[in-house]
Design brief:
homodimer; about 220 residues; alpha/beta; Rossmann fold; 7-stranded parallel β-sheet; 8 helices
């Protein structure tokens, strides 16, 4: 079964690189957070608001995108360092790519490395990057059926964040339906509702990050 | 190079199945339209409005999703037939899956088969399903940077549709930036701006479909 063995070799190589990434960051006292969402859920905007609120210059960002360095440019003012990783046609970051990105960073004095994965609710789920925690991000305009449809992403999350709650009154979105769907797949992860734009709910998100960091 | 040869075998098998799908629909006088977008761009809502406007019961829909049959249920009232194709962990439909779906349909008397691909801006792009035309769908809440970031999708499109334009006044979205980015990658495809919810712009979209059908 050659197809299966190729896939399993790819994942084995990825997992070995992920373990090295994790050990490297652990040794430097850095916490790595892997953020996964559909395109346009607001990963970059969330980080633009999160990093200064945690402490200016205390976090670095690795940004995955097929093309362009637009997200890295948006984050350059608030992050200690940003590395844009262009995946070409790849729909997820790999641990090897993250290892190369980490090689560009000085980890000394950093609290967090945020990994903004390629906008995709499927491919990134299978690839451990060496993160300490995984965020599944959803936004109100995407609709209230996404947890049921992409349950693997939400199952594997350490925290589930609903962004753009400032649009809850404007768009059709059944919050109870989302809560019910989350209860079916993940009873472990907190469910944080926020708007990176209005600031609503950001305290809970920042509190979760601080608790993860242990201070 | 075993990895590359596996990928190329997969695509060869897909393309052969796609050619058969196309020939089958051609013989039945049916036009197939493959709709690709991120999760939550409004593919299902667009089809809910499109099909009755074209002619009740004149179109069938093949719906791809990792899990659930929610989209097929939403379309059951307006389509002549709907087939839900669950891909499990697969981030796109394949031509073989579409062939199986077509096997469930009676093509006699149909004008269109709409193929609602898995919500994903990357994976579906490489897989010809046997469609006659490909729609790249984007929605305002996803942001104005998506054409540059996912240019392969927009490059391969026969029409580019911007949905949820009723939110243009509410959300930050630079329409000129999107127009400029489209001009860089695709000068062939019309750019249709609409709101499946408010009905704005639907006439242009319906006109494009009718022209594709040749009547």
């Amino acid at each position: 079964m050659p197809k299966i063995s190729v896939v399993s070799n790819v994942l084995q190589a990825n997992d070995a690189a992920a373990a090295e990434n994790r050990a490297l960051m652990q040794a430097a006292g850095v916490v790595a957070v892997n953020i996964i969402s559909a395109p346009g859920s607001g990963k970059t905007t969330l980080l633009q608001q999160t990093i200064p609120a945690l402490a200016e210059g205390s976090s670095a960002v690795l940004v995955g995108d097929l093309q362009t360095s637009r997200d890295a440019e948006r984050l350059a003012d608030v992050a200690a360092a940003t590395v844009q990783i262009n995946t070409g046609s790849g729909c997820h970051l790999s641990a090897e790519q993250v290892a190369a990105g980490l090689g560009e960073l000085d980890l000394t004095g950093l609290d967090f490395v945020f990994i903004e994965n390629v906008g995709n609710m499927v491919c990134p789920v299978s690839f451990d990057l060496g993160e300490h925690a995984r965020v599944a991000l959803l936004s109100v305009p995407e609709g209230d059926d996404k947890v049921a449809k992409y349950h693997t992403l939400f199952q594997a999350a350490d925290v589930i964040v609903l962004n753009k709650v400032d649009l809850l009154g404007i768009l059709d979105f059944d919050l109870d339906r989302v809560r019910d769907d989350i209860a079916q797949v993940n009873t472990r992860a907190p469910f944080v509702q926020l708007s990176a734009k209005s600031g609503e709910g950001m305290d809970e998100w920042l509190g979760w990050l601080r608790a993860l960091r242990g201070h």
